[in-house]
Design goal:
The protein is α+β, with helices and mostly antiparallel strands. The relative contact order is 0.11. A hairpin with a 2-residue loop joins strand 10 and strand 11. The radius of gyration is 25 Å and the shape is globular. Strands 9, 12, 15, 16, 17, 18 and 19 form a seven-stranded mixed beta sheet that branches. A four-stranded antiparallel beta sheet has the order 1-8-6-3, with no helix packed on it. The longest helix has 16 residues, at about 225-240. It folds into three domains: about 5-80, RNA polymerase II/Efflux pump adaptor protein, barrel-sandwich hybrid domain (OB fold (Dihydrolipoamide Acetyltransferase, E2P)), CATH 2.40.50; about 130-215 and about 225-240, Irregular (Dihydrolipoamide Transferase), CATH 4.10.320; about 245-449, Chloramphenicol Acetyltransferase. Helix 9 (about 275-285) packs across helix 10 (about 335-350) and helix 9 packs across helix 11 (about 425-440). The protein has eleven helices and 19 strands.
């Protein structure tokens, strides 16, 4: 009888832990090699983890909802069927948090929600490398910084640097190895020197979601990991950037005509020719000539990104994720359309790798697909701009005929909006970029198809 250990995988260089969100197989089930075994959720991506070998799932060491460090033993697979009857895993002892869980509100749904909250609270968590403040009031930004990689924490300890004060360029403001090494090179090594070099924090108080009392019949459901990360990231972004939004109306009639002519030919090649592909193409071309929109803020400096990496927000049943099309300005329209379709499909089936949702320089979100006329999206940090695409539909529009007279015609129209960080991007910069995107879409060249 051979026994194969199944470990919590490391889904990226900066990821130190993962949450086992769902078992796809049960004790005693037969599994095939590379068949999905369980789902995990990390700070960067949700993913299905395949079985490393064929056999029988003999032991489950980590329960659903439990967060453990990478390389933790999650399960055991026996490679010879029927060698031994799998033993049931011992339940984790209830924690103090579980004992303090509030009483369930009236009604079966409320009781189920409170039970779920208590179960989530009882999951053991790895100890924090840095203890929280004495009053327990800790911001989401501080929690994210504390969960930086062990290497970053080791470097910080060796140089007596307080990680919480370093402007991070990683996911949700996390401090990366490059961030801390760059900071140390400036000569600020002691905590006192660190404090003197940093801007004072925003006076808006700790980032804590208010607690609201459920009413009888309500259903209480704890935030999923991806929902909690999204919530904290959005609030942090609003606090970080000076948000301003500009709106432009675009006449998509030219794009609609090109789609009508070429859609079938693209479909024969397995590519869906969507409006979003045209918009991404227009943005990719114009980000190169408007570098301030493709930038990032690092402390008191502006980083003008060399690569144009466009993130495409994908709405999932369980949250929101932004896979990234790398070097989008170098891709043809067909290449962009194929990449957007592929990333969206793998986001919905939890097949993305952590690298595919990192290193974005600009983001496009498309609420118009759900019918939204226009919106003011929140910037995806540490970027400085995000484009929102409104619904594209036929509307009446005043057009000027060749003889100079005006008439009302039916045109394919839509709104685009761009939220930008006014610390870096002035209104004139944003409007020039949007005007060029509008012009590219309204006069899209046949040769680019």
């Amino acid at each position: 009888m051979a026994r194969v250990d199944v470990l919590m995988p490391q889904m990226g260089e900066s990821i130190a832990e993962g949450t086992l969100s769902k078992w796809l197989k049960q004790l005693g089930d037969e599994v095939k090699r590379d068949e999905p075994l369980f789902e995990i959720s990390t700070d960067k991506v949700d993913a299905e983890i395949p079985a490393p070998t064929a056999g029988v799932l003999a032991e489950i060491k980590v329960q659903e909802g439990q967060t453990v460090p990478v390389q933790t033993l999650v399960a055991v697979i026996e490679t010879e069927k029927g060698a031994a009857k799998p033993a049931a895993p011992s339940p984790a002892p209830p924690s103090a948090a579980a004992q303090r869980a509030p009483a369930a509100p009236g009604g079966a749904a409320g009781a189920a929600g409170a039970a779920g909250a208590a179960a989530a609270a009882s999951v053991p968590r790895p100890s924090s490398p840095v203890p929280p403040k004495g009053d327990g009031a800790e911001t989401a930004e501080e929690r994210l910084r504390r969960k930086s990689t062990p290497l970053v924490r080791k470097i910080a300890a060796e140089h007596q640097v307080d990680i919480a004060g370093i402007p991070g360029t990683g996911f949700a403001g996390r401090v990366t190895k490059q961030d801390i090494l760059g900071f140390i090179e400036t000569g600020a090594k002691a905590p006192g020197a660190l404090a003197s070099r940093l801007p004072s924090p925003a006076p808006s108080g700790p980032l804590v979601h208010p607690v609201v009392e459920p009413w009888p019949g309500d259903r209480v459901e704890p935030f999923s990991k991806i929902r909690k990360i999204t919530a904290d990231h959005m609030i942090m972004s609003r606090r970080t950037s000076a948000h301003v939004t500009s709106f432009f109306e675009v006449d998509y009639s030219r794009v609609a005509e090109l789609r009508r002519k070429h859609k079938a030919a693209y479909a024969e090649r397995g590519v869906s020719l969507t409006y979003l592909a045209f918009i991404a193409k227009a943005c990719g071309e114009n980000l190169r000539t408007h570098p301030v929109v493709n930038a990032a803020v690092s402390g008191d400096s502006i980083i003008y990104r060399h690569d144009v990496n466009i993130g495409i927000a994908v709405a999932l049943d369980w949250g929101l994720i932004v896979p990234v099309v790398k070097r989008a300005d170098e891709l043809s329209l067909a290449g962009l359309a194929r990449a957007i379709s592929d990333l969206g499909e793998r986001a919905r089936t939890k097949k993305l790798s952590p690298d595919e949702i990192q290193r974005g320089t600009f983001t496009i979100t498309n609420p118009g697909v759900f019918g939204s006329y226009a919106g003011a999206p929140i910037i995806n940090q540490p970027q400085v701009a995000i484009l929102g695409v409104g619904a594209i539909e036929k509307r009446p529009k005043v057009v000027t005929l060749p003889d100079g007279t005006d008439t009302i015609a039916i045109r394919t129209m839509g709104m685009v909006s761009m939220s930008y960080d006014h610390r870096v991007v002035d209104g004139a910069d944003a409007d020039r970029f949007l005007a060029d995107v509008k012009r590219t879409l309204e006069d899209f060249p046949e040769g680019a198809i």
